[in-house]
Amino acid sequence: MTLRRDNLSGLLPAAKRPRVRTISAHLAIAAIGLSLAGCGGSGQQALPTPLSSEEVAARAQQPLTALGPCTFVPTPGDIGEVDGLVLPPDAVLIESTDTEGLVNLRGYVAMTPVQVRLWFEAGVGASDFELLSAEDETHEAEVLVKVGAYRMYFKAAAICELGSAFVAVVAPDGSSAAVPTPTGSAASTG
Q: What is the pTM of this model?
């Protein structure tokens, strides 16, 4: 004899039969009751209040205090003028290499990566400046810009609460395939 659920009713006394349907029904009623009651008792949901765009922007520009104070004092390198290079105020160039028109630069700026991105998005005050792409992840920011006949990729990475190390790559606009683009960006032409 094969035991199936419908066959159990004849084999077991009523007190020992599985009460699957009754338990399932009670659980369903309890779940509906809890969802209608909101589980809080007061009827109010305990969701956080969304931040306004102004509050988000203000928080994003705060120092990255988990990284500690900035004690790094950069030593400027002996670097001449680089066509197509646009830097935030007080940026310090440390090193530069030029390989067949592709200029790689390394430096330090007393800004968080978010502040760097916001500075570039503000237009930097150059008449022939065009922001092609920008993104940040709080501790790192990347921008791609066109400055006259040049393209520049700029990446800042936080190293202290109000300071970032950066790399910049500058190339003539015709050589833009050699210039990196911000992560996740499709802005390699423009």
A: 0.63
